[in-house]
């Protein structure tokens, strides 16, 4: 029985042990995680270490990273882990990186109000992106630090000023929204979450994310009440989780979602076909904003095709129209921070269309009353 168990285990894990040979270091898949000692980064690095598609995982943080790298190197997968610390070692950490993942931020910034979160994280990401432009200008950049709605416009402006901008290579990682939408939709549909896909478009905040439940795969069968409930649950998920856990707890769902996006990007760079992920990117998919999260077809050069805004129901269209009002100001804040302003300010309170269908508003009131 014991021998059979070992045999089954070997069959399940043998694909992880494929030894890959490359002619030079420039062809190796190196992924660098900036902010690698943080609460999201530690489980993220463990997940990335398990991928047979990554040859070298580099961990960088202002604080100590050597112990984390040493422990990860005990995991018996082929990916090599190296560590660097401090601002003086950005160059070493970023050298020959194909993908750079930014999860750095101020301590406990996820628990801050939006304005304080922006004030705390913007200078940190600004410094990181400046170094990326200097040492890894050809890399693919995935930013998972919040607030993504503003940090991606800021990042793009920094890269433009330094001649390192590639609109197909900068991504705001919004995969956590999609992962949550898949999970909540699967519960309602009675399906396994792995079999459900719900695109989430718009932005990365409660007021800007739009789960497109009408595009659920497999074909959706929701009642109006279920659509409203899933939408509210996805949008409120971050707030509800922050109420449940103290700041020192781990961020496992965030790490899982970020790892999923990074591995999808690595697959696309390596030439795997039909890789589609939602991400917040420079975009012309909506006439009123220059950045939007939409489904993307990824390829060896990054974004092979922006698949744009899916066909929306009246309810989803209304949510997106109102999300754009907030997105414009979020984008403007990021551009203004680095002295570039392309997006006119917009007053979210001055919305000419109804905020949302009456049944949605009634549902929101009912939910608020339940919490009192």
TrEMBL record:
Domain spans labelled Lactate/malate dehydrogenase C-terminal: 174-338
Q: Which GO terms describe its biological process?
A: carboxylic acid metabolic process; tricarboxylic acid cycle
| Start and end residues of each Lactate/malate dehydrogenase N-terminal domain | 29-172
User: GO terms for CC?
Assistant: intracellular organelle lumen; mitochondrion
**Alphabetical keyword list:** NAD, Oxidoreductase, Tricarboxylic acid cycle
EC assignment: the record states 1.1.1.37
Q: Which residues bind NAD(+)?
A: 61, 121
Q: Which reaction does it catalyse?
A: (S)-malate + NAD(+) = oxaloacetate + NADH + H(+)
Which top EC class applies here? oxidoreductase
Extract the GO molecular function terms from the UniProt entry: L-malate dehydrogenase (NAD+) activity
User: Per the record's keyword annotation, is Cell membrane included, yes or no?
Assistant: no
Domain of life of the organism in this record? Eukaryota
InterPro entries in UniProt: L-lactate/malate_DH, Lactate/malate_DH_C, Lactate/malate_DH_N, Lactate_DH/Glyco_Ohase_4_C, NAD(P)-bd_dom_sf
Family, similarity comment: Belongs to the LDH/MDH superfamily. MDH type 1 family.
Quote the subunit structure annotation. Homodimer.
- Name of the featured protein: Malate dehydrogenase, mitochondrial
Which organism does this sequence originate in? Diabrotica balteata (Banded cucumber beetle)
């Amino acid at each position: 029985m014991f021998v059979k168990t070992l045999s089954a285990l070997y069959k399940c894990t043998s694909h992880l042990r494929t030894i890959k040979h490359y002619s030079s270091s420039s062809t190796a898949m190196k992924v660098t995680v900036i902010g690698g000692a943080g609460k999201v980064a530690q489980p993220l690095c463990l997940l990335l270490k398990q991928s047979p598609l990554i040859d070298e995982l580099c961990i960088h943080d202002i604080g100590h990273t050597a112990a984390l790298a040493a422990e990860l190197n005990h995991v018996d997968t082929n990916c090599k882990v190296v560590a660097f610390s401090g601002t003086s070692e950005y160059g070493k950490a970023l050298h020959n990186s194909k993908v750079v993942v930014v999860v750095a931020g101020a301590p406990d910034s996820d628990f801050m109000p939006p304005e304080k979160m922006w004030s705390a994280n913007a200078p940190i990401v600004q410094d990181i992106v400046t170094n990326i432009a200097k040492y890894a200008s050809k890399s693919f950049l995935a930013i998972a630090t919040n607030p993504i709605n503003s940090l991606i416009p800021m990042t793009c402006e920094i890269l433009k000023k330094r001649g390192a901008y590639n609109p197909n290579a900068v991504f705001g990682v919004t995969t956590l929204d999609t992962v949550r939408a898949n999970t909540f939709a699967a519960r309602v549909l009675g399906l396994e979450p792995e079999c459900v896909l719900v695109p989430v478009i718009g932005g990365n905040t409660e007021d800007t994310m739009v789960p497109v439940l009408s595009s659920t795969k497999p074909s959706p069968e929701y009642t109006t009440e279920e659509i409203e409930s899933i939408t509210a649950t996805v949008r409120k998920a971050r707030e509800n989780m922050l109420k449940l856990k103290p700041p020192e707890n781990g961020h496992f769902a965030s790490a899982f979602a970020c790892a999923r996006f990074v591995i999808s990007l690595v697959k696309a760079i390596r030439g795997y076909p039909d890789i589609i992920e939602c991400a917040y990117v420079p975009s012309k998919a909506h006439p009123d904003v220059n950045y939007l999260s939409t489904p993307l077809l990824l390829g060896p050069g990054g974004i092979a095709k922006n698949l744009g805004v899916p066909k929306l129901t009246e309810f989803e269209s209304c949510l997106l129209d109102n999300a754009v009002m907030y997105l414009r100001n979020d984008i403007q804040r990021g551009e203004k921070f680095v002295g570039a302003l392309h997006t006119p300010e917009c007053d979210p309170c001055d919305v000419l269309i109804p905020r949302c269908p009456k049944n949605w508003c009634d549902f929101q009131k009912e939910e608020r009353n339940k919490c009192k």
